[in-house]
């Protein structure tokens, strides 16, 4: 959440360790200044209103009609946005000259614009349909005209041939009966009708079959495909079509053909048999097309100008409508007084914002010219306030990681403070390679340098998530470079960065310097792992031992931090029971076993002892009185182990037994003799207390509390072992990352280099780059991130963090900007 409350000294410095102190406030607002008051409070964005009309449906609330008006305006704006996107018109970000509109004026203005745009669209649609029909008509005239011309030319050719044959055959022997028959045939000739139009090309074959079957073959159909797709007048889509002419005989056949044309979506057009009329009609249609084209262009130009005008002020109007809708939605949460002259609001606000809220109330009273000012008062309640941390763009992503597990209870210790450092550090322990760290750093710096551009754009899901966590990734990269320098790995290759290696060959004949024959010749390598270890026979045993012990030390330190934070929570909430019967036994148990193991690791490193720590820890439980022999690391070690073991055993019943009995005694003492409770002084306090403190008078369930404490104790005892073992994932993932990096370097890059072939080398480099980016920089990064997340959520936070609070969600116009309607 953005840091509100910028001005002056009203805001204390940012404090992430505890959430902001909150109080429940009541504001009594005169009805004439209610809208302006809520608007000014929305500008501040530091009050979370409670819904005092929860039992009412949305339609029964006071400002339901205004919400309806806002919804109607939002619909009109969505209509404009849809039209602008279709016309590819962009809305300008913000209007420089900010025209002031009140809500009623905006309603009239948008109504007029919608009516005008709807009329322009309807006219354009009508003209476009007419234009598309004329285009189809012209095609029919041209294609069908070609049919008739071809038919006429064939008929004339046949007639000429027939007349020449007739002249040759005419003689006196020709029977008279033949003339009579031919005359009779001419009298019986039937006039054929025809229908012309266009049918979609994909349905032309089915159209032909259905015509043939419906008329039993008594039709003659000619089709010709149109070269280019035409826009269908009815659907407005581009369709491949065929021009057809159907010849038929009789009205019955005609009615069947018309029905089939309608069923197949075939558009029919009139056609004249006379060639002269056909030419005249083509000229007329061409003239009409040019006229319509001019008219449509003028209409589209007018529509574009209208949408440009809307686009200039669209964002401003949209913001105004969103604000108005949110104001009336908030007003609907307020309860109206019996006199219907004022509204009563209740809500949570940070204590530091009190002066800002009072100033906003006073300003609203002046600006609305109300004779009565709003009344602001603080209410006392036992209800748990919301949790509010003021974060900036750097700490917000770390707080989001904590909130994903659970929102902190009001004013409990916030793990987010420590997560800023511990999360990227644990990630880097698993990912340590300063070459890979530099790659991630460069990618993150690119996102940070283009921060302003990307923050105003709508990004994809993955990109948005990556961009949101850019500062987490930045620290992860920096810590990875640091741990990579400690591990001395640059894409798995060691470098002598700080000084030459401390080891050298025993003699000049030492040919296998990486495996045998090395002796210490110089001072110890000053920082990190000596490069001579890489590639030696002892590399894995040495690094495994180092990383495993380091993981245990880091884990025990972080778990101790968690238990110490539970101590500060107990102090802050004045809960001495948790200090004496939770914090102290937990510290004794954890450090009596695993704190002691950490101490042994450090002593062994400092003294160079050969003691077997596995043997020491196992026999500390199995045979605590036996002599340690060569595994003894310091004097009186056996006595120390016996004391620690005894204290650890005592810590378990110490955690389990006293707390439930003490809680029962406290409950009995608090409620002893409280059958009758005194009445509160004011009606408001009765209203506020009602329903909030009923749990205080519930029957104390001792068995439930005892079982809960038993579960908590078992969970801690077993968790101390399992959580310490869980930190070994730091060692495992670090080893896996190192070995994968070595495999890609040796088996891809060095192998390709060894062939002395440029093509193989280029292919090898490409494969190495893709493997490094895909596996090590993407998959391994994600894997280490998830494991670091688990260590924080489970191993660290379960020691002290309840996470059962709820987030502060103030009424703020700043939070409405990115909302989709």
TrEMBL record:
It is found in: Membrane. It comes from the Eukaryota. GO terms for molecular function: ATPase binding; proton-transporting ATPase activity, rotational mechanism. Signal peptide: none annotated. Its main location: membrane. InterPro entries: V-ATPase_116kDa_su, V-type_ATPase_116kDa_su_euka. One of its GO terms (biological process) is vacuolar acidification. Residues 158-184 are annotated as: Disordered. It is a multi-pass membrane protein. The keyword Cell inner membrane does not apply. Keywords: Coiled coil, Hydrogen ion transport, Ion transport, Membrane, Transmembrane, Transmembrane helix, Transport. Residues 158-169 have a biased composition (Low complexity). Pfam families: V_ATPase_I. The chain crosses the membrane at residues 425-449, 470-487, 550-571, 583-603, 639-657, 758-779. Belongs to the V-ATPase 116 kDa subunit family. Essential component of the vacuolar proton pump (V-ATPase), a multimeric enzyme that catalyzes the translocation of protons across the membranes. Required for assembly and activity of the V-ATPase. This is V-type proton ATPase subunit a. It comes from Ambrosia artemisiifolia (Common ragweed).
């Amino acid at each position: 959440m953005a840091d509100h409350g910028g001005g002056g000294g009203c805001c204390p410095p940012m404090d992430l360790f505890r959430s902001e102190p909150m109080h429940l406030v009541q504001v009594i607002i005169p009805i004439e200044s209610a809208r302006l008051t809520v608007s000014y409070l929305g500008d501040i964005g530091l009050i979370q209103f409670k819904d005092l009309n929860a039992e009412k449906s949305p339609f029964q609330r006071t400002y339901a009609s205004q919400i309806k008006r806002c919804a109607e305006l939002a619909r009109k704006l969505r209509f404009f946005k849809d039209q602008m996107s279709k016309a590819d018109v962009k809305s300008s970000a913000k209007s420089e000259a900010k025209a002031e509109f009140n809500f009623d004026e905006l309603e009239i203005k948008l109504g007029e614009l919608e009516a005008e745009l709807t009329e322009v669209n309807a006219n354009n649609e009508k003209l476009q349909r007419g234009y598309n029909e004329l285009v189809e008509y012209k095609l029919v005239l041209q294609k069908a005209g070609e049919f008739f011309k071809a038919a006429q030319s064939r008929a004339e050719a046949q007639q000429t041939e027939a007349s020449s044959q007739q002249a040759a055959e005419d003689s006196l022997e020709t029977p008279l009966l033949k003339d009579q028959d031919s005359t009779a045939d001419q009298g019986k000739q039937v006039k054929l009708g025809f229908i012309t139009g266009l049918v979609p090309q994909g349905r032309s074959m089915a159209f032909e079959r259905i015509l043939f079957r419906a008329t039993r073959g008594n039709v003659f159909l000619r089709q010709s495909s149109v070269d280019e797709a035409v826009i269908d007048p009815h659907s407005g889509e581009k369709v491949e079509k065929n021009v057809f002419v159907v010849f038929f005989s009789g009205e019955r056949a005609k009615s069947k053909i018309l029905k089939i044309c309608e069923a197949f979506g075939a558009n029919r057009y009139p056609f004249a048999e006379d060639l002269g009329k056909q030419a005249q009609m083509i000229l007329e249609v061409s003239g009409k097309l040019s006229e319509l084209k001019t008219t449509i262009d003028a209409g589209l130009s007018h529509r574009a100008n209208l949408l440009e005008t809307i686009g200039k002020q669209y964002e401003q109007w949209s913001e105004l409508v969103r604000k108005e809708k949110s104001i009336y939605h908030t007003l609907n949460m307020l309860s109206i007084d019996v006199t219907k002259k004022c509204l009563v609001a209740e809500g949570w606000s940070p204590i530091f914002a009190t002066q800002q809220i009072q100033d906003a109330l006073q300003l609203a009273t002046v600006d609305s010219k109300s004779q009565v000012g709003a009344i602001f008062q603080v209410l006392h309640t036992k209800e748990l306030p919301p949790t509010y941390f003021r974060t900036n763009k750097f700490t917000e992503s770390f707080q989001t990681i904590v909130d994903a597990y659970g929102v902190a209870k009001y004013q409990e210790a916030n793990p987010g403070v420590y997560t800023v450092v511990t999360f990227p550090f644990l990630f880097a322990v698993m990912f340590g390679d300063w070459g890979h760290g530099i790659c991630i750093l460069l990618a993150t710096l690119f996102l940070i340098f283009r921060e302003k551009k990307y923050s105003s754009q709508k990004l994809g899901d993955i990109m948005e998530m990556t961009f949101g966590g850019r500062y987490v990734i930045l620290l992860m990269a920096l810590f990875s470079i640091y741990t990579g320098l400690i591990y001395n790995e640059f894409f798995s290759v060691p470098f002598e960065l700080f000084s030459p290696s401390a080891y050298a060959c025993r003699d000049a004949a030492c040919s296998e310097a990486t495996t045998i024959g090395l002796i210490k010749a110089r001072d110890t390598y000053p920082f990190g792992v000596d490069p001579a270890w890489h590639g030696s026979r002892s590399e894995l045993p040495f690094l495994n031992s180092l990383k495993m012990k380091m993981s245990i030390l880091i884990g025990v330190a972080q778990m101790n931090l968690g238990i110490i934070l539970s101590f500060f929570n107990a102090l802050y909430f004045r809960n001495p029971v948790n200090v004496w019967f939770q914090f102290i036994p937990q510290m004794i148990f954890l450090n009596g076993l695993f704190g002691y193991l950490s101490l042994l690791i450090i002593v062994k490193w400092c003294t160079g002892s050969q003691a077997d720590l596995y043997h020491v820890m196992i026999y500390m439980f199995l045979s605590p009185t036996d002599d340690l022999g060569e595994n003894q690391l310091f004097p009186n070690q056996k006595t120390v182990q016996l004391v620690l073991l005894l204290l650890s055993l005592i810590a378990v019943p110490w955690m389990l037994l006293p707390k439930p009995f003490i809680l029962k005694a406290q409950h009995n003492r608090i409620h002893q003799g409280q059958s009758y409770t005194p009445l509160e002084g004011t009606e408001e306090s009765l209203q506020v207390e009602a329903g909030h403190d009923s749990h205080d008078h519930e029957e104390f369930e001792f068995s439930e509390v005892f079982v809960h404490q038993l579960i908590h104790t078992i969970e801690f005892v077993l968790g101390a072992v399992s959580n310490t073992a869980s930190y070994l994932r730091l060692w495992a993932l670090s080893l896996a990352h190192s070995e994968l990096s070595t495999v890609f370097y040796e088996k891809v890059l060095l192998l390709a280099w060894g062939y002395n072939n440029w093509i193989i080398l280029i292919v090898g480099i490409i494969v190495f780059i893709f493997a490094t980016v895909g596996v090590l920089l993407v998959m391994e990064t994600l894997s280490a991130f998830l494991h670091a997340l688990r260590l924080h959520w489970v191993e660290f936070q379960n020691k002290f963090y309840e996470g059962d609070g709820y987030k502060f969600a103030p009424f703020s116009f700043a939070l409405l900007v990115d909302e989709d309607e």
